[in-house]
Write a structure and sequence with these properties.
alpha+beta, Spore Coat Polysaccharide Biosynthesis Protein SpsA, Chain A, 4-stranded mixed β-sheet, 9 helices
Length: 257
Protein backbone atom coordinates (compact mmCIF):
# COMPACT_ATOMS: atom_id res chain seq x y z
CA UNK A 1 0.00 0.00 0.00
CA UNK A 2 2.97 2.29 0.58
CA UNK A 3 4.04 1.46 -2.96
CA UNK A 4 0.60 2.29 -4.32
CA UNK A 5 0.64 5.67 -2.58
CA UNK A 6 4.11 6.45 -3.91
CA UNK A 7 3.14 5.45 -7.46
CA UNK A 8 0.01 7.62 -7.33
CA UNK A 9 2.06 10.54 -6.03
CA UNK A 10 4.64 10.08 -8.80
CA UNK A 11 2.00 9.99 -11.54
CA UNK A 12 2.57 6.35 -12.52
CA UNK A 13 -0.20 4.80 -14.67
CA UNK A 14 0.11 1.11 -13.77
CA UNK A 15 1.56 -0.51 -10.65
CA UNK A 16 2.73 -4.14 -10.66
CA UNK A 17 3.20 -6.02 -7.38
CA UNK A 18 5.65 -8.91 -7.37
CA UNK A 19 6.30 -10.81 -4.13
CA UNK A 20 9.87 -11.40 -3.04
CA UNK A 21 9.59 -15.17 -2.61
CA UNK A 22 11.04 -16.07 -6.00
CA UNK A 23 7.82 -17.72 -7.19
CA UNK A 24 6.82 -14.97 -9.63
CA UNK A 25 8.45 -14.64 -13.04
CA UNK A 26 9.07 -10.94 -13.90
CA UNK A 27 8.95 -11.80 -17.62
CA UNK A 28 5.16 -12.15 -17.19
CA UNK A 29 4.76 -8.45 -16.39
CA UNK A 30 3.76 -7.56 -20.02
CA UNK A 31 0.95 -10.14 -19.78
CA UNK A 32 -0.30 -8.54 -16.56
CA UNK A 33 -0.38 -4.99 -17.87
CA UNK A 34 -1.68 -5.77 -21.39
CA UNK A 35 -5.40 -6.08 -20.38
CA UNK A 36 -5.14 -2.80 -18.48
CA UNK A 37 -3.49 -0.98 -21.38
CA UNK A 38 -6.09 -2.31 -23.82
CA UNK A 39 -8.98 -1.19 -21.59
CA UNK A 40 -10.15 -4.70 -20.75
CA UNK A 41 -9.32 -4.61 -17.02
CA UNK A 42 -8.66 -2.29 -14.11
CA UNK A 43 -6.80 -4.90 -12.07
CA UNK A 44 -5.14 -8.16 -13.01
CA UNK A 45 -3.99 -11.01 -10.80
CA UNK A 46 -2.20 -14.29 -11.26
CA UNK A 47 -3.94 -17.65 -11.38
CA UNK A 48 -1.83 -20.77 -10.92
CA UNK A 49 -4.71 -23.15 -11.72
CA UNK A 50 -4.95 -22.79 -15.50
CA UNK A 51 -2.45 -25.51 -16.39
CA UNK A 52 -3.53 -28.76 -14.73
CA UNK A 53 -0.13 -30.34 -15.33
CA UNK A 54 1.74 -27.50 -13.64
CA UNK A 55 -0.40 -27.37 -10.50
CA UNK A 56 0.85 -30.84 -9.58
CA UNK A 57 3.93 -29.00 -8.29
CA UNK A 58 1.76 -27.30 -5.69
CA UNK A 59 1.76 -28.99 -2.25
CA UNK A 60 -1.54 -30.80 -1.55
CA UNK A 61 -2.28 -28.65 1.51
CA UNK A 62 -1.90 -25.44 -0.48
CA UNK A 63 -3.96 -26.87 -3.33
CA UNK A 64 -6.85 -27.71 -1.01
CA UNK A 65 -6.51 -24.45 0.92
CA UNK A 66 -6.57 -22.36 -2.26
CA UNK A 67 -9.67 -24.17 -3.50
CA UNK A 68 -11.53 -23.48 -0.24
CA UNK A 69 -10.36 -19.86 -0.07
CA UNK A 70 -11.32 -19.30 -3.71
CA UNK A 71 -14.86 -20.51 -3.06
CA UNK A 72 -15.19 -18.29 0.00
CA UNK A 73 -13.77 -15.31 -1.90
CA UNK A 74 -16.34 -15.69 -4.68
CA UNK A 75 -19.07 -15.06 -2.11
CA UNK A 76 -17.36 -12.24 -0.25
CA UNK A 77 -15.86 -10.35 -3.20
CA UNK A 78 -18.53 -10.88 -5.88
CA UNK A 79 -15.96 -11.91 -8.50
CA UNK A 80 -17.40 -15.31 -9.34
CA UNK A 81 -15.16 -15.89 -12.36
CA UNK A 82 -11.86 -15.58 -10.46
CA UNK A 83 -9.72 -18.22 -8.77
CA UNK A 84 -6.54 -18.32 -6.65
CA UNK A 85 -7.49 -15.23 -4.58
CA UNK A 86 -4.34 -15.17 -2.42
CA UNK A 87 -2.07 -14.84 -5.47
CA UNK A 88 0.17 -11.82 -4.86
CA UNK A 89 1.19 -11.21 -8.48
CA UNK A 90 -1.02 -8.26 -9.41
CA UNK A 91 -1.24 -5.10 -11.51
CA UNK A 92 -3.57 -2.12 -11.10
CA UNK A 93 -4.24 1.17 -12.83
CA UNK A 94 -3.58 4.08 -10.48
CA UNK A 95 -6.80 5.79 -11.59
CA UNK A 96 -8.50 2.93 -9.74
CA UNK A 97 -5.97 2.57 -6.92
CA UNK A 98 -6.41 6.19 -5.86
CA UNK A 99 -10.02 5.40 -4.90
CA UNK A 100 -9.07 2.53 -2.59
CA UNK A 101 -9.52 3.08 1.18
CA UNK A 102 -5.92 2.17 2.09
CA UNK A 103 -6.46 2.68 5.82
CA UNK A 104 -9.22 0.04 5.82
CA UNK A 105 -7.59 -2.69 3.72
CA UNK A 106 -6.41 -5.74 5.66
CA UNK A 107 -2.70 -6.40 5.86
CA UNK A 108 -0.63 -9.61 5.77
CA UNK A 109 -2.23 -12.76 4.33
CA UNK A 110 -5.72 -11.33 3.79
CA UNK A 111 -4.46 -8.34 1.79
CA UNK A 112 -5.04 -9.71 -1.74
CA UNK A 113 -8.45 -11.12 -0.82
CA UNK A 114 -9.57 -7.87 0.80
CA UNK A 115 -8.37 -5.98 -2.26
CA UNK A 116 -10.89 -7.90 -4.37
CA UNK A 117 -13.73 -6.92 -2.04
CA UNK A 118 -12.66 -3.26 -2.15
CA UNK A 119 -12.35 -3.36 -5.95
CA UNK A 120 -15.87 -4.79 -6.26
CA UNK A 121 -17.28 -1.88 -4.27
CA UNK A 122 -15.69 0.37 -6.92
CA UNK A 123 -17.15 -1.77 -9.74
CA UNK A 124 -13.64 -2.39 -11.08
CA UNK A 125 -13.04 -5.10 -13.69
CA UNK A 126 -10.64 -7.82 -12.53
CA UNK A 127 -9.04 -10.37 -14.87
CA UNK A 128 -7.08 -13.55 -14.07
CA UNK A 129 -3.71 -14.00 -15.78
CA UNK A 130 -2.46 -17.61 -16.22
CA UNK A 131 0.87 -18.32 -14.56
CA UNK A 132 2.75 -21.42 -13.47
CA UNK A 133 3.07 -22.50 -9.87
CA UNK A 134 6.74 -22.43 -8.90
CA UNK A 135 7.82 -23.98 -5.61
CA UNK A 136 11.34 -24.64 -4.41
CA UNK A 137 12.67 -25.52 -0.97
CA UNK A 138 11.32 -22.40 0.71
CA UNK A 139 9.26 -22.80 3.87
CA UNK A 140 5.98 -20.89 3.99
CA UNK A 141 5.14 -18.85 7.10
CA UNK A 142 1.44 -19.39 6.41
CA UNK A 143 -0.25 -21.70 8.93
CA UNK A 144 -3.82 -22.60 7.98
CA UNK A 145 -4.92 -23.24 11.56
CA UNK A 146 -3.67 -19.81 12.62
CA UNK A 147 -5.53 -17.83 9.98
CA UNK A 148 -8.66 -19.94 9.37
CA UNK A 149 -10.78 -18.22 12.03
CA UNK A 150 -9.57 -14.78 10.97
CA UNK A 151 -10.33 -15.50 7.30
CA UNK A 152 -13.82 -16.81 8.08
CA UNK A 153 -14.70 -13.71 10.09
CA UNK A 154 -13.31 -11.32 7.48
CA UNK A 155 -15.05 -13.13 4.62
CA UNK A 156 -18.35 -12.93 6.52
CA UNK A 157 -17.77 -9.22 7.20
CA UNK A 158 -16.94 -8.46 3.56
CA UNK A 159 -19.90 -10.47 2.26
CA UNK A 160 -22.30 -8.57 4.54
CA UNK A 161 -20.84 -5.20 3.56
CA UNK A 162 -20.86 -5.99 -0.14
CA UNK A 163 -24.49 -7.13 -0.10
CA UNK A 164 -25.53 -4.01 1.83
CA UNK A 165 -23.54 -1.65 -0.40
CA UNK A 166 -24.55 -3.16 -3.76
CA UNK A 167 -28.13 -4.25 -3.11
CA UNK A 168 -29.52 -1.80 -0.56
CA UNK A 169 -27.38 1.34 -0.31
CA UNK A 170 -26.45 2.01 -3.96
CA UNK A 171 -29.23 0.21 -5.77
CA UNK A 172 -32.39 -1.82 -5.33
CA UNK A 173 -33.43 -4.71 -7.56
CA UNK A 174 -35.44 -7.91 -7.44
CA UNK A 175 -32.35 -9.55 -5.92
CA UNK A 176 -32.69 -7.19 -2.94
CA UNK A 177 -35.97 -8.95 -2.14
CA UNK A 178 -34.93 -12.49 -3.09
CA UNK A 179 -32.13 -12.83 -0.53
CA UNK A 180 -33.96 -11.76 2.68
CA UNK A 181 -37.17 -13.52 1.60
CA UNK A 182 -35.24 -16.72 0.82
CA UNK A 183 -33.42 -16.63 4.15
CA UNK A 184 -36.65 -16.03 6.08
CA UNK A 185 -38.51 -18.85 4.32
CA UNK A 186 -35.59 -21.25 4.76
CA UNK A 187 -35.18 -20.37 8.43
CA UNK A 188 -38.92 -20.72 9.07
CA UNK A 189 -39.09 -24.07 7.30
CA UNK A 190 -36.10 -25.50 9.16
CA UNK A 191 -37.20 -24.24 12.60
CA UNK A 192 -40.89 -25.07 12.15
CA UNK A 193 -40.13 -28.49 10.68
CA UNK A 194 -37.56 -29.20 13.40
CA UNK A 195 -39.96 -28.28 16.21
CA UNK A 196 -42.77 -30.40 14.76
CA UNK A 197 -40.37 -33.31 14.20
CA UNK A 198 -39.29 -33.21 17.85
CA UNK A 199 -42.92 -33.00 18.99
CA UNK A 200 -43.76 -35.98 16.80
CA UNK A 201 -40.99 -38.04 18.39
CA UNK A 202 -41.92 -37.05 21.94
CA UNK A 203 -45.62 -37.80 21.49
CA UNK A 204 -45.03 -40.80 19.22
CA UNK A 205 -47.61 -39.27 16.85
CA UNK A 206 -47.02 -38.87 13.11
CA UNK A 207 -46.99 -35.25 11.96
CA UNK A 208 -49.98 -34.09 9.93
CA UNK A 209 -49.59 -34.00 6.15
CA UNK A 210 -50.25 -30.25 6.15
CA UNK A 211 -47.47 -29.69 8.68
CA UNK A 212 -44.99 -31.67 6.61
CA UNK A 213 -46.02 -29.88 3.43
CA UNK A 214 -45.73 -26.44 5.03
CA UNK A 215 -42.20 -27.11 6.31
CA UNK A 216 -41.09 -28.71 3.03
CA UNK A 217 -42.59 -26.02 0.81
CA UNK A 218 -41.05 -23.11 2.72
CA UNK A 219 -37.63 -24.79 2.66
CA UNK A 220 -37.86 -25.42 -1.09
CA UNK A 221 -39.05 -21.87 -1.79
CA UNK A 222 -36.32 -20.43 0.45
CA UNK A 223 -33.60 -22.36 -1.37
CA UNK A 224 -35.03 -21.31 -4.74
CA UNK A 225 -35.02 -17.63 -3.80
CA UNK A 226 -31.44 -17.86 -2.51
CA UNK A 227 -30.30 -19.61 -5.70
CA UNK A 228 -32.04 -16.92 -7.76
CA UNK A 229 -30.16 -14.26 -5.81
CA UNK A 230 -26.83 -16.03 -6.38
CA UNK A 231 -27.59 -16.23 -10.09
CA UNK A 232 -28.27 -12.49 -10.17
CA UNK A 233 -25.09 -11.82 -8.19
CA UNK A 234 -23.01 -13.85 -10.66
CA UNK A 235 -24.46 -11.87 -13.56
CA UNK A 236 -23.62 -8.63 -11.74
CA UNK A 237 -19.84 -9.19 -11.85
CA UNK A 238 -18.32 -5.87 -13.07
CA UNK A 239 -17.72 -5.87 -16.85
CA UNK A 240 -17.10 -2.19 -17.66
CA UNK A 241 -13.61 -0.91 -16.90
CA UNK A 242 -13.41 1.91 -14.40
CA UNK A 243 -10.05 3.56 -15.13
CA UNK A 244 -11.07 5.08 -18.48
CA UNK A 245 -14.02 6.95 -16.98
CA UNK A 246 -11.95 7.83 -13.91
CA UNK A 247 -9.27 9.44 -16.10
CA UNK A 248 -11.89 11.32 -18.13
CA UNK A 249 -13.48 12.62 -14.92
CA UNK A 250 -10.04 13.71 -13.70
CA UNK A 251 -9.40 15.63 -16.93
CA UNK A 252 -12.79 17.36 -16.71
CA UNK A 253 -12.12 18.40 -13.11
CA UNK A 254 -8.68 19.74 -14.07
CA UNK A 255 -10.15 21.79 -16.92
CA UNK A 256 -12.84 23.19 -14.62
CA UNK A 257 -10.17 24.34 -12.17
Amino acid sequence: MAGYRAAISDGVDIVVKVDGDGQMDPSLIPAFIAPILSGEADYTKGNRFFDLEKIRQMPAVRLFGNAVLSFMTKFSSGYWDLFDPTNGYTAIHTAVARHLPFKDISERYFFETDMLFRLNTLKAVVVDIPMDASYGDEVSNLRIKDILGEFLLKHARNFSKRIFYNYYLRDLSIASIELPLGLLLLAFGVVFGGVKWVESIQTNTPAATGTIMLATLTIILGVQFILAFIGHDIQSTPRKVMHNSARILGVVRSENH
